[in-house]
Design a protein that fits this description.
The structure holds two protein chains of two kinds. Chain A is mostly helical. Chain A is 70% helix and 2% strand. In chain A, a hairpin with a 4-residue loop joins strand 1 and strand 2. Chain B has two domains: 158 residues, Rossmann fold (3-Layer(aba) Sandwich); 71 residues, no CATH class.
């Protein structure tokens, strides 16, 4: 199809869909990046934590009658606690080993978490109602903007901006950046680095769950909803390069949009476009577009 | 002795008392029983050739080696079983040989990074230096405060690495090869800085390969070889040991 044949409203609404997906990619790759920086662990469980965010939000609504806004706070908290337990109980024992073991451990955790979810809820997907406040759409002169999707974009970008601010502009963030470069030296300053590591993993887990709750009303909530997400997000992290916060966010958004536009122009390629770009970037810049930090 | 009492220890307690310290990296046995004492307010120098075990001694004092054994008392408190962060909290500051300036932090962020370890120490006259005092002592750092840490010159990075542990209120400084690779003018500045710190009552362990830098500053010298202290003497005995030093340092 010729791109110029597409009516503007269709183009814009596809752009919006891409942007929403890009927001999920951005929030997830941001968390992966922060975790990898300090822990040197490639957190395969990130997709499962995203799914848990959505599933816990659904459960809260289903069993306890809690609304969306409550679950938007509670689900990330629960995922954060689970993340802290995973780090303290499991990950902290394998830091001296190769990266690969962290990947295997978190992959195993993913299989366990998803398996438990499948045996309890199957894979058919359940619907979760978004907040009534954001139901409907706003008619703009050039397109119809679904309110909930606009909220997803705003909330995701706010989460990314807040994370960026904390890491780049505060004392806690300075400790995190320094710990990412040389954790042993930071410890000689009397800083409790193991606690910092636990909190970082918990924060990454909470961020993934936050994205999961945001996604719950627009995706089918199912125990396997994290799988396609994590695969794409890994490709995005490879493209952006680990270690740059702004890089993760920009790459996530850009590739979400690109994926959306590909659906319009050449739908057959929309599932592969991210991976084609990944291959190209690996050929030209193996460290990724923004991979600037001196990672060990 | 509890940590909060460390600022009130009797003057007779050494700032650092190392006895029979052994250390390993993996399977390699690097230190074979090091004994070393630094009284409060003393500057002692640890000399020796490359590979003699000087840096490892400092790293082992902080628990940075894979394994260590023996006794390391910091202001009277046994630290051999403690993790690095708790040893630091006994009042030790460490300036590593590679300086350890963080590239993703500005000069001032590097400076403000280590937390103050002895809050309320002001009452005992042992508070860390304020940022203003540090900038007065190292005017270059004030000028470069917003530059990324690794854009600083070698001399500035060295000053930053030392300055950032002065803010925290620690009273025992372990300085590893601070004169290494720097221009003579900078080395003279560093020597004046050590004099100033000494006059302020800091205890300093100076690991050096450059004997001429350490000679006028230290009150006592330890010379290492093969992971042991091969020779030790006071500054007054220096002339008598010139010959032995030549052998241990230059051959």
């Amino acid at each position: 199809m010729n791109p110029f044949d597409i009516p503007l409203p269709a183009l814009l609404s596809q752009l919006m869909l891409g942007l929403v997906n890009g927001c999920f990619y951005a929030v997830l790759s941001l968390g992966l990046s922060v975790i990898f920086g300090l822990l040197n662990v490639i957190n395969f469980a990130h997709g499962a934590l995203f799914m848990l965010g959505a599933l816990v939000a659904w459960m809260g609504g289903q069993y306890l009658g809690l609304n969306y806004w409550t679950m938007l706070v509670l689900a990330p908290l629960a995922a954060g606690l689970l993340g802290a337990a995973i780090e303290r109980g499991l990950l902290s024992r394998i830091y001296k080993l190769d990266h690969l073991y962290g990947l295997l451990l978190t992959l195993g955790l993913t299989l366990i978490i998803e398996g438990l979810g499948r045996s309890a809820y199957g894979v058919s997907g359940m619907s979760f109602d978004g907040p009534a406040l954001l139901a409907g759409a706003t008619r703009l002169p050039f397109m119809v903007l679904p309110n909930y999707r606009a909220w997803v974009v705003v909330a995701s970008l706010a989460a990314c901006a807040l994370t960026w601010f904390v890491i780049e502009r505060t004392r806690v963030g300075a400790l995190l950046r320094a710990g990412t470069e040389n954790a042993r030296l930071v410890e000689t300053f009397g800083v409790n680095v193991p606690l910092m590591v636990t909190l970082t993993y918990a924060f990454g887990a909470a961020l993934a769950a936050f994205a999961g709750v945001l996604a719950a009303p627009i995706m089918q909530v199912s125990p396997i909803m994290g799988q396609p997400m994590i695969v794409t997000v890994f490709a995005i992290v490879v493209i952006g390069g680990m270690g740059s916060i702004a890089g993760s966010v920009v790459t996530g958004l850009a590739l979400g949009v690109l994926e959306g536009l590909t659906k319009l122009w050449y739908p057959e390629a929309s599932a592969t476009v991210v991976f084609v770009i990944m291959a190209l970037v690996l050929l030209v810049r193996p460290h990724g577009l923004f991979g600037g930090y001196a990672y060990k | 002795m509890k940590a909060h009492e460390s600022s009130l220890v009797a003057a007779s307690v050494p700032a650092l008392a190392v006895t029979g310290l052994q250390a390993w990296y993996g399977e390699s046995h690097i230190l074979h029983g090091v004994d070393l004492v630094a009284g409060q307010g003393e500057v002692v120098s640890l000399l020796g050739r490359n590979g003699a075990g000087r840096s490892t001694t400092l790293r082992a004092i902080l628990g940075l080696t894979d394994t260590r054994d023996g006794s390391v008392r910091v202001f009277g408190r046994e630290t051999i079983g403690l993790p690095t962060r708790k040893i630091a909290r006994c009042g030790v500051g460490f300036c590593p040989e590679e300086r350890g300036i963080f590239a993703s932090l500005s000069c001032e962020e590097n400076l403000l990074l280590p937390p103050v370890l002895t809050p309320g120490g002001a009452a005992s006259g042992q508070a860390g230096m304020s940022l203003d005092e540090i900038y007065a002592m190292f005017p270059n750092l004030a000028e470069r405060r917003h530059s990324p840490g690794t854009r600083l010159s070698g001399g500035e990075q060295q000053m930053l690495a030392i300055a950032r542990i002065l803010r925290t209120g620690v009273r025992l400084l372990l300085l590893d090869e601070i004169s290494e690779g720097l221009a003579p003018a900078i080395v003279r500045t560093l020597a004046r800085m050590i004099e100033t710190l000494k006059s302020r009552g800091y205890t300093i362990v100076l690991v050096e390969q450059n004997f001429h830098f350490a000679a006028p500053l230290a009150e006592r010298f330890y010379v290492m070889e093969h992971g042991r202290i091969a020779l030790q003497f006071d500054a007054a005995q220096l002339p008598a040991h010139t010959q032995a030093l030549q052998t241990l340092l230059n051959v």
